[in-house]
Amino acid sequence: MPEDQTTDTRLGSAKDMLLSPIRTAAAIRNDRYKSLKVRIFFTVGTLAGVPLLIVTAVCFFWLHAVLVDDFSRQLRWQMEHAQEGLESFLQDRVSSTRYFASVHSYGALSKEQSLRTIFRKSKQEFPELIDLEVLSSGGKRVSYAGPYADKSSNYANHDWFIRAKVHGVAISQVFPGDRNILHYIIAVRQEMPGREGFWILRASFDVETLTRFVAEIELSDRDDAFLVAGNDMLQTTSRLHGAALERVSLPVLSQQKVVSIAKIDDEVVGKGIFGSVKVQGSPWTLVAIIKPATLARIASMLKREILAVYLVIVFVAIGILMNYRTTQRIVNRIRETEKAREEAIAHSEHSAKLASIGRLATGVAHEINNPLAIINEKAGLIKDLFEVHPESSGCQKEFLPLVNAISDSVGRCRTITHRLLGFARRMEIDIEQINVNEVLREVVGFLEREIVVRNIRLELNLDDKLPHIESDRGLLQQVFLNIANNAMDAVKDGGEIGLSTMTATEGGLKIVIRDDGAGIRFLRQKRREGARDSGFPCHTASSSDLAERLRLTVFCTRERRLPSFSRSVRTSRRTDNETRKRASGR
Amino acid sequence: MKRANVLLVDDEADLAQTLARRLNMRHYRARSVYSAPEALEAVSREAPEVMVIDLHLPGMPGNDLARAVRQVDSTVAIILLSGQGSLQTENWIHDGLIVDFVMKPVEIQELTKKIDSAKNEHDARCARKDGERGKHGQA
User: Fold this and answer.
1) Helix (H, G, I), strand (E, B), or coil: what is residue A243?
2) Which of A362, A378, A422 sits opposite B18 (nearest CB)?
3) CATH number at residue A570
4) Rounded average pLDDT over B109-114
5) Global pTM?
6) Minimum CA–CA partner of B82 in chain A
7) Inter-chain residue contact A384 with B83, CB threshold 8 Å
């Protein structure tokens, strides 16, 4: 493999090695930005969502409470209405039964003929009446009117009989009895006229009448209302709990005259509002359970509203974000434009300063050149005169060395003024065919005084067959001068600087400026860390712009054969147009 | 070889006179003038073979004077006296406006060498011109 390629490969790997921490840092920064984006996204989402959820929850509970209260009041009102109706009905039936017992004598009622007559008349008035029966104080049938004449039993131990015997009147629970038909009994006690003892008039009523009263409570298909005896026995059919006489598990029922309302949430009923009220004068408690559909719909209604509000918030947030990003983009563009303008102004000012320096140098050199020329010609004339008229002066031997000294001094001044003029002229862009070796020799000319004074050993190894390139001589000279000055600063007195040129195998020219100085601090640091050759732009800030304009590739590196790093400048040949464009900075 | 008839043009009279004197001491027929109008008048009157013109003449730059001189006498070989060489100077040589340039301060040996070369160029131009005249005469 050619040496150049080896060097380039080495430089490439070294560059990767040096840049890898930078790339790692960049990757870490990217990760941080990503993490920051995610955090900002979720923070903004949370900030937007949490208040919304709080408001929604408050709304939900408030609305739920309002609806529950409203439904509770409606339920209470309907239950009170049903309770009043039921109590009134029962009171009416009790009064009617008591009336029959009081207006008719025991003797008349104990005759079944008379009892059947009364039954028929009563049946017309009260269709739900099933039968009438007169019982002795021992609970045995005395007479009977109704469809179940063959069914007879002793009621002495029946609860309703005992209560009627004690309290004078009793209403039984609903039960099927021997007749196997759901009914309830109203029993009234009547004293035997003129002697000790009593008798009881028993009236059986169909339970359907009770069901009608319960049904007066306006309910939806989801709701339920029924009568319960005790705490757990259904007296009418329940939609949720089953048929009458089934045992149910219910919350504690009200034993008060006023309606009690509570929330209910169990496996059978689910969530709902539970109302109960004692039907006075009866063993029954009126129970109603409502499960308003509106309550169930609150959540879904709020879900839709939440979604709608959230979408609005998201759209607003996206709008604000887009507006922010657009504003940021515009501001960034303005900032970049402003920065570019400031850089252009700074560059222009720098160029103007250089041009001013160039003009100043030109003026000074020209002004000095003319008197120098006169001095030179006058001294030359003196020498000419001595040669033409050797006999004209006896002091010729003394004068000639003095005149020669004047001529030598003029020659030195001439060299300086010519360099100044050449340097100044090259401040302006001027593309021409250039022999790089000549440019380097001129650069050395600028430094030769310091080289001599500091006893620096200069090794010039310039390739005579170097092809000419098209470039700006002055700009090239400035770049080389900057790098050579760096080398001069780097080496100690008595050190070594080498300049060599060669044709690069990949095209263009290769100019190597090396020294045996301490090296750049950054390179020394990398060397301590074990890095081998390092390839990175090391030209100074002032030559950076020039190198860019001239399409120079400038590397600092440390070659194995050298005691310290060297600077290599690689140029590539360009087309005329490219060169002019780059050099003119357009 | 007969030394050239030289006309020096420089606004620095002291320099021009000294140079002219030194050239004369070397058997050139040198004369100095100090402005462009004087130079044009001298060209018409004396027909110099070689002119050494300072580039930075007041009123008319040396290259413009050279152009004017060439219009009067196209055989005059002109050497430009300049602070430094440039691409422009190279172009003027390439275009035939001047034959050479010399930088101030000039060494007399270098100047005489260039004057001699310029004299040869002048002679060649004259020969070409005579040849062309001969052709035209025969025609």
Assistant:
1) coil
2) A378
3) 3.30.565.10
4) 94
5) 0.42
6) A366
7) no
**All domains in chain B, ordered by first residue:** 5-138 (3.40.50.2300)
How many Cβ atoms from other residues are within 10 Å of residue B113's Cβ? 13
**Mind listing the pLDDT tens digit for each residue in B3-17?**
899 999 999 899 999
CB-based contact B83 A362, cutoff 8 Å: yes
Q: How far is B52 from chain A (nearest CA, A)?
A: 14
Give the per-residue pLDDT at A532: 40
What are the tens digits of pLDDT across the range A524-569? 554 454 444 333 334 444 455 566 666 666 666 655 443 333 333 4
Residue A227, in any domain of the structure: yes
What local confidence, expressed as pLDDT, does residue A553 receive?
66
The residue type of A267 is E
A356 within a domain of the structure (yes/no): no
Residue A310 domain flag = no
Chosen for mutation from A370, A377, A470 (greatest number of chain B CBs closer than 10 Å) is: A377
Domain count along chain A: 2
Please report whether residue A420 resides in a domain: no
b/e map A201-215, b = 16+ CB within 10 Å? bbbbbbbebbbebbe
Q: Which domain holds residue A481?
A: 430-584
Higher pLDDT, A575 or A289: A289
Distances (CA, A) of A131 to A98, A121, A186, A187, A403: 15, 12, 11, 12, 170
The whole-angstrom separation of Cα A188 and Cα A279 is: 19
> Do the Cβ atoms of A433 and B91 come closer than 8 Å?
no
Chain segment A490-503, per-residue pLDDT in tens: 888 888 888 888 88
What pLDDT is stored for residue A520 in this prediction? 55
Interface test with B, best of A372, A374, A388, A414 (most B CBs within 10 A): A374
What pLDDT is attached to residue A366?
76
Asked if B21's CB is within 8 angstroms of A375's CB, the reply is no
- Identify all chain B residues contacting A365, using CB atoms and an 8 Å cutoff: 83
| Chain B residues near residue A425 by CB distance under 8 angstroms | 84, 86
Q: Which residues pair with B81 in a beta bridge?
A: B54, B102
* Domain stop point among A263, A291, A319: A291
Q: Count residue pairs from A and B with Cβ separation < 8 A.
A: 59
Q: Where are the alpha helices (DSSP H) in A152-223?
A: 159-167, 208-215
User: In chain A, which residues have their Cβ closer than 8 Å to the Cβ of B91?
Assistant: none
Please state, in angstroms and rounded to a whole number, the distance separating the CA atoms of residues A287 and A476: 108
Facing B84 at nearest CB: one of A380, A388, A422? A422
Q: Are the C-beta atoms of residues B99 and B78 closer than 8 Å to each other?
A: yes
Nearest residue of B to residue A418 by CA position? B84
pLDDT recorded at residue A14: 45
In contact, A226 and A235? CB cutoff 8 Å: yes
Contact B84 A425 (CB under 8 A): yes
Residue B120 has pLDDT above 50, yes or no: yes
Average pLDDT of chain A is 77
A369 contacts B83? CB cut-off 8 A: yes
Residue where the block lists tokens 């033409």 = A388
pLDDT of residue B109: 92
CA-nearest residue of chain A to B25?
A384
Among the candidates A235, A258, A291, a domain finishes at: A291
pLDDT digits (tens, 9 = 90+) for B43-88: 999 999 999 999 888 888 899 999 999 999 999 999 998 766 566 7
Query: Which CATH number is A84's domain given?
Result: 3.30.450.20
* Residue A405 structure tokens: 């000294």
Residue numbers in B near A376 (CB within 8 A)? 105-107
Q: Which of B22, B83, B84 sits opposite A377 (nearest CB)?
A: B22
